[in-house]
Amino acid sequence: MANQHSVQAEPKEHHFHQHDAIKSGIKGALFGGSAGFIFSAVQNSLAKRNVGAWGVFSRTGSTIGMFTAVGTVYTFSKDASANLREKDDTLNVTIASFLAGATIGLRTGRIPQILGFGAAFSIIMSTFEFTGGSLRGGARPEILDMDEYERKEYLRTNRRRPITEAISEVGEGRGIKPPGYEERRRERLKEKYGVEINPVSANA
């Protein structure tokens, strides 16, 4: 018979911390503007006629403006949505991605393209965020609740290989001297060259 008085684990309460949307928007503007400047410089360098160095701003400067606007809208909308909903989840990325994609479509001035760019960008970014926000995949459940120090210690020890395994693959010598190395070295020299080496005592 099941215990009717069994203690059930209480769900861990998550405390939401407000984000500084203005600061995030400024960072997004700087990052987007830098990326836009690089793309504008590449476009300017591929021009068929010489337009000069100022062509980065005069000829292809709209690229810088577009990247700056997209970066600002995305980062500001993401944190603003999180603050309004008081949740950090994929929906914040979905909203921010749609607005950022719609910002790209504003250049065309057509509603179908504005909605299409927003939907496409939203689907791509939401899928990327939902699958872990990394090309290597999401974090494993056992390290999600660890703090930064415990996580790094776990990753360091998890990737540590036994010395015997490393020696078996790399081999002895070249600075790698496991226990018993000198005895095995003398035996190999005796078998190969017929020379017996007697170690010199440090106390002699």
TrEMBL record:
GO biological process assignments: mitochondrial electron transport, NADH to ubiquinone
InterPro entries from the UniProt entry: NDUFA11
Signal sequence region: none
Keyword 4Fe-4S included in the entry's annotation: no
GO cellular component: mitochondrial inner membrane; respiratory chain complex I
Keyword Mitochondrion carried by entry: yes
Membrane topology: Multi-pass membrane protein
Keywords per UniProt: Membrane, Mitochondrion, Mitochondrion inner membrane, Transmembrane, Transmembrane helix
Location within or outside the cell: Mitochondrion inner membrane
Protein name: Uncharacterized protein
Biological source species: Daldinia eschscholtzii
